[in-house]
Amino acid sequence: xxxxxxxxxxxxxAAELETGVDADDAIIVSSPVDGSKLACLKPTALAxxxxxIGTAQQAFLAWRTVPAPRRGELVRLLGEExxxxxxxxxxxVTLEAGKIRSEGLGEVQEMIDxxxxxxxxxxxxxGLTIASERPGHRMMESWHPMGTCAVISAFNFxxxxxxxxxxxxxxxxxxxxxxxxxxxxxxxxxxxxIVERALARFGDAPAGLLQLVMGGADIGDALVCxxxxxxxxxTGSTRMGSIVGPKVAARFGRSILELGGNNAMIVAPSxxxxxxxxxxxxxxxxxxxxxxxxxxxxxxxxxxHDQLLDKVKKAYASLPIGNPLDAGTLIGPLIDAAAxxxxxxxxxxxxxxxxxxxxxxxxxxxxxGGAYVTPALVLMPEQSEVVRHETFAPIxxxxxxxxxxxxxxxxxxxxxxLSSCIFTLNLREAEQFLSAAGSDCGIANVNIxxxxxxxxxxxxxEKETGGGRESGxxxxxxxxxxxxxxxxxxxxxxxxxxxxxDF
Length: 503
Known about the structure:
There is one protein chain. By secondary structure, the protein is of the alpha/beta class. It is built from 16 helices and 23 strands. The chain has helices spanning 3-9, 14-17, 49-63, 68-84, 86-97, 101-121, 160-171, 185-202, 217-225, 238-250, 273-285, 305-317, 337-352, 385-388, 404-412, 427-434; strands at 27-30, 37-41, 129-130, 137-145, 148-152, 176-179, 210-212, 229-235, 254-258, 263-267, 295-301, 356-358, 362-363, 372-373, 376-379, 395-401, 416-417, 419-423, 443-446, 458-459, 462-463, 470-471, 480-488. It has a 7-stranded mixed sheet, sandwiched between helices. It has a 5-stranded parallel sheet with strand order 7-6-5-8-9, with helices on both faces. Strands 3-4-23 form a 3-stranded antiparallel sheet, with no helix packed on it. A hairpin with a 6-residue loop joins strand 1 (27-30) and strand 2 (37-41). Helix 6 (101-121) runs parallel beside helix 7 (160-171). The protein is globular and about 80 Å long. The mean pLDDT is 97.
């Protein structure tokens, strides 16, 4: 399909794509596929933000009183509309974010999956009944809606991360204001058209329940600093999180931070090497190394290092690099030229720190333009400073280890703590890796790579990854406030802890 056909199929009109705004004031959207201009958009006016936030607050006052299963019905309808538009939205993800076709479709499937999950969750927002020490008393916990939830999303998952947050926030009784990356606003615009269809079918949702704002850091800052925004869910770099987190905390708001990842795999002597290679390749080069869960560090036992490396090199050499809209492509482009520059700078640093580099060259032949590269394997003598820093590109640093204790120490000895894994057929090694003395990451896998998480589990990590949790398990609690209730159904008024206060 042509660029125009993809944009049209997603419901985006020429008038929406070319707003006539002066280029100096506009959001210029380019496709990483070939660098071509896709749109010239008018950003949200900063002066309009108080009204937008105020509208969301009014929506909250109404939506919080709607029974949770009824709120779940809206999310169910959204899932239906996403199913109907899966191919159109998936193609737009490929065009605007550069993901290969199956990954674009997979991202929309994540949206559908979280809608299914949240629909069921709407009937399972459970509290607790707690034993009271006082006769004739009952204690319990209740969960209530928090308020407006701002979602600040990144380019690499331009729609799925919004859905993780929005589906849960909606069933928990909260309105949502979405600020997408300036690099990928078109997928957000197309998603909001799908949302509008679901809202129309639902019938009686309050105005301002789901809103979209577009712009730069000033628009994000307006959400972060507003006391009427109860929750700020922000996905991006550690640097961004170090700004957002303190600002939200300073006003006693709640933040859900999904930040940097520097994910590792340990390959033990007993590992199924063919399976490990498949996991390594997808985890390291999928989305051109631009996932927060991308494999960036590989620790291989010295006894199998050379054998595994030969297999990985062979696999890398077979990977088709090119236009992500083409069916056979497995590695598409980096998001832009700046990402390519950062990759080249990191490789130069790795070389200076003793690394031996295979690949990592810019690709200009057989591609339509854009920033295409061969994935890089870098053999490092140690875990140097460049290895401890996350570079958002397909660079895989490979290091040897002797003992599992050493490998786990190296894996944990970075500022980030998102995802990790071990390949082993040794039960003791697997259990050690998953134990309290093992991986310190929010995600720890055995015989599966660090990338490609399912929505059923809570997603997030520790340390500079931010500590937030989204998606499955009990992540819904981050979108609600907990209330402890004590009910006295007796005719007496005893005090706790045996306190006497008679008069």
